[in-house]
Design brief:
Blueprint lengths: L7 E6 L6 H15 L5 E7 L4 H8 L5 E4 L16 H7 L3 E4 L2 H6 L4 H13 L3 E6 L3 H5 L3 H13 L11 E4 L13 H18 L2 H6 L1 E5 L4 H8 L6 E4 L6 H10 L3
Parallel strand pairs: 1-2, 1-8, 2-3, 3-4, 4-5, 5-6, 6-7, 7-8
Helix pairs in contact: 1-2, 1-11, 5-7, 7-8, 10-11
The structure holds 2-phosphoglycolic acid.
Length: about 260
Amino acid sequence: MPTHARKLLIAANWKMYKTPDEAVAFTHTFIPLVGNCRHAEIVLCASPSLLPTVVEKARNNPIHVAAQDMHWLDQGAYTGETSPLMLKALGVSHVLIGHSERRQYFNETNTTVNLKLKSALAHGLVPIVCVGEHLAQREAGETGDVLRLQTAMALDGIDPAAAGPLVIAYEPVWAIGTGRTATPEIAEDAHKIIRAEIANALSPEVAASTRILYGGSVKPDNAGTLCCLEDIDGALVGGASLDANSFAQIVANSAG
Ligand code: PGA
């Protein structure tokens, strides 16, 4: 597979930041800066409270909108949750699943990740499934096992024919919000492990076409180096995506 045979995807993960007014201000600065972007798909992952505002601003612009999580059921007595039907009705097209902060603080497990992934695919939402090892696991030499297990369990029972939209994000937990980016070698190694596991769980064809993003302290000055690697098909950006100029610079630099 030649470099960049897959279209890059650059996603902003705003986490629990921004009010609607701040989101509007972001889009007013950001959209003119990326208006001519052809090399990458751009996604803004926003809190549920911001989704209607961001969807409205993204309309007729080269920007997609993602939720940061969802329940796997269409509806029910689950106070505080958001369903795939609600996201679709709002015009949301993508959804983050299994971010390490959800795994760490909100009881997300490989089993719920699998349920959410199946639901997202069934509802025509593009799933961005996050995997990644903790520092202690890396230091114990367990990274490969952790990534293989998280990927295999996420993909369990998925029909390869339905997996076309699948996106995976490799986010080493020790690199998230720490300023400690994975080296290109570490990232590329991890992406190869994940791609091999996709081939194993689904098919070599799905593995070859699935985009695998890198996330963890991506900044304007390292986005180009990371995104030009053969197995890295874009970035999931937290802190550096909150500022419109910084995120636009990441999008621009990802072209290499
Ligand atoms: P960071 O976050 O870019 O601030 O490290 C990445 C993420 O959590 O998706």
